[in-house]
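Q: Could you fold this chain for me?
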Amino acid sequence: MSDIWNDLSKKVMDRGALKQFLSIPIEDKYCGELYYNEKGEGFYDTFYTENPEPEKFESDGQIYYINQKGERFDVVKKEKYILKNQTRLAETTADFHKLYKNHFKDSKLNNTQKENEHYRKEVLTPRIEALLKLHKKSAGKANIDAKVTFIANEYLKFIRRNASYVENPHKDVFLDDKAYWIFKELHEIHKDKKSKLANYSRIYWIMKEDKPNQILCSNTRFVELVNTELYNISIDRIDSRHSGSGNKIQSLYERIKNEIV
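A: Sure. Below is the predicted structure, expressed as structure tokens.
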């Protein structure tokens, strides 16, 4: 009997391994409510639990709910609480940045381009692919979690197009990690397009003129950076005609900036 139980427990753990790997902490600011009955028993009513939101009823002025066992639950007290040590699935670009940062830190590797490239391609990508296979095998065709597998594939796409360091490697150029990640996203979008002078002039000015300034350096230093073999852009200057209002990448910049936290 113990062998059967152990096999079942292992399958449940295997099925949940991918979801756990793709989860990030929920910040303490997320609150919920805990409902108590007259016996002092309580149950959750919150989006951040696995339980569905309980159905609310009213009878003779008394509010009651149906608990997870399908029984009537008369509420006499409600208390606000803060969720701690809870997690949720990563879903947005900002979430994927957090997830990668957590995963890379756990790897104990140094913050260099070479080790990031090695980790992304030879460690992290194969691990996610292996967890995907494990999830599909342990869950069975009928029980595959479509949302989790979709997020896993989106995270793989993010990893393949982003070689971001965990930290900003150009501290004389970019304000902080977020500013660097914004630049990296803009660079990935524009690096293979024509009109590099115009495009990278727009990138420079949109970030330089933001408040606070996301780019700290002079245009000469920025040109020097994007011309290195890290970025390989090959421009000779920054065009001042792309400064000021009316920057053509304004909406793109704002979207990326809002996605990265």
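A (continued): The radius of gyration is 25 Å.
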